[in-house]
Amino acid sequence: MLAEKALELVREQHRCTDGALAPFNEDGIRQVLEEMRALFEQNQRDTTATVSGEVGLFSSIQLRHTALERNKRCVLAYLNNRLEHIKRMRWEFGSVLPADLRYNLCEQEVQWFNSYNRMLANYMRAIGDTGGVDLTQDMKPPKSLYVEVRCVADHGEFETQDGDLIVLKKNSQHFLLRSECEHLIRQGVLEHIVHRM
């Protein structure tokens, strides 16, 4: 069926609702592009035949052209959705993606992530009077400057802004500045301990 493979790409992306990014479907993209090339070549032949005087091919040309447009929209929607997801991951996880998420990206998406990362870092350095502002630091407005955190995995030594060295061992608890540990919380090294009253 025409444009079915392209629609499957969109469905595949739509099924990833839990925030995870499915591996890049290079095979699916290749199949859609091959179908588009075949449709284009058929349209070229029929258009040439129509110009030379053959009648009755206009409907099939128009049908294939519509399928080409649908394939193009589906592939662009698939790629755009992935890029938007990668952009959100940069804000969520910071400048270094976890290995399991990075594994799902194709080479061009990794290059795009690195480029976006550089542009964002340059922009953050350029704003503010004191040499920059970290826009990714507080994704939600903080209620306090210090937070209590528990180490989820062994991380090693961590140097605070005032020069103290803290050893982050699994199950150890610390009281740290939110600005210092926010990126480690997002990476899953630390978890914020919330005391319910």
UniProtKB/TrEMBL annotation:
InterPro entries: GINS_A (IPR021151), GINS_bundle-like_dom_sf (IPR036224), GINS_Psf1 (IPR005339), PSF1_C (IPR056783). Its main location: nucleus. It comes from the Eukaryota. Residues 143-194 form the DNA replication complex GINS protein PSF1 C-terminal domain. One of its GO terms (biological process) is DNA replication. GO terms for cellular component: GINS complex. Component of the GINS complex. This is DNA replication complex GINS protein PSF1.
